[in-house]
Amino acid sequence: TTWTMEAEEDISPVDVDTGQFSQVLQNLVINSDQAMPDGGVITIRVAECTLGAESALPLPRGNYVKIAIQDQGIGIAREFLSRVFDPYFTTKNFGQEAKGFGLGLTIAHKIVLLHRGVINIQSKPGETIVAVDLPTASTVDLS
Questions:
Q1: Residue 12 carries which DSSP code?
Q2: How does pLDDT run across 13-23, given as a tens digit for each residue?
Q3: Which of helix, strand or coil describes residue 81?
């Protein structure tokens, strides 16, 4: 497995606990790697975006940093997409040695929510994209 990184220049800062957020990224990259048993490319993209009233994301209007992790793996079956953040839910035990406990995405989801962001997954055979949207430090109202 190889990986690439694509990032816009001058991304606004986000206010995160670096230890917790590194765990989010580790869990997402490990999942991507395990989804490609024959290898492939993991692409990490970082970009800034502005969400307005028309946004489908359940977030207030403002500026956000989107971190998208894309893999070329087996994908997640449509019937499982609604359950991927459930504790102990895993598809990694079917027909193979158990590789996971089903907590990686649950933990990532909880940490992202605690940082006032959202995490979404789009998947089809050959491609899964996990996107994390976090408010920029200037968007977060701490009052």
A1: P
A2: 999 999 999 99
A3: helix
